[in-house]
Specification:
By secondary structure, the protein is α+β, with helices and mostly antiparallel strands. It contains 4 helices and 3 strands, in the order H-E-E-E-H-H-H. The chain has a domain at 7-56: Ribosomal Protein L9, domain 2, CATH 3.10.430.100. The longest helix has 12 residues, at 7-18. The chain is elongated and about 90 Å long.
């Protein structure tokens, strides 16, 4: 969580979810809420009326699962690199001539006239 839940945000959610208008100054927070869980917030409605409100802070974005954990075990074995134990004969070798063929040759840009050299 990168932000914080403030008294104003709690008052806005009370209005949108439950149609309850409550001034944010009546919601007492010692510090803004910065963790995802249930919190008890003190409401000071009047000088003699103090109550508590349970506030659940949840993420609105789902937690991403790592792909390695969801991949089958057979795939993980195939993706090993040479440093991790893959056999050298299993990896195709490239010759220097093959590398030169795979690189495209640089061509001059058409339509640009050459500038004359200054003396």
């Amino acid at each position: 969580m990168f932000g914080a839940v403030t008294a104003g945000m709690i008052a806005d959610q009370l209005k949108t979810q439950f149609d309850i208008s409550l001034d944010k100054r009546k919601i007492h927070l010692e510090h803004p809420i910065r963790s995802l869980r249930d919190h008890e917030v003190e409401l000071r409605l009047h000088a003699d009326v103090v109550t508590k409100l349970k506030v659940r802070v949840e993420s609105n974005t789902p937690v991403a699962t790592p792909e390695a954990a969801t991949a089958p075990q057979g795939k993980a074995e195939e993706q090993k690199t040479e440093k991790r134990g893959r056999r050298a004969e299993a990896a195709p070798e490239k010759s220097p001539a093959a590398e030169q063929k795979s690189r495209p040759a640089r061509a001059e840009k058409p339509g640009k006239p050459e500038k004359p050299a200054r003396k």
